[in-house]
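Practice problem: predict the structure.
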Amino acid sequence: MAHNVILKTREYDQDKDKRELKALITGGAGFIGSHLAEHLIALGHQVTAIDDLSSGRRENVQHLLHEPCFHLVVDTITNESALEALVADARGRGLDAS
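Answer:
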């Protein structure tokens, strides 16, 4: 399965020019996705991972579940409404925003 990542940069401290990313990782409980999530969290970014756990494993992200900047969604990317909501959140806007 190919892994797709949506990154959105948001300035949260303009004085220090720090940037925070919101990342959405498909296949986030897989080997590659979990390591990518780990790396982005270590850099101080927010990560949402979606995985249906058909080949990914919860054990791969178990150590991240306590992190306030990590969220695991157990669902399939073919669930359009769930994916649409996650993409909207990664872009920093709600579903009713255009």
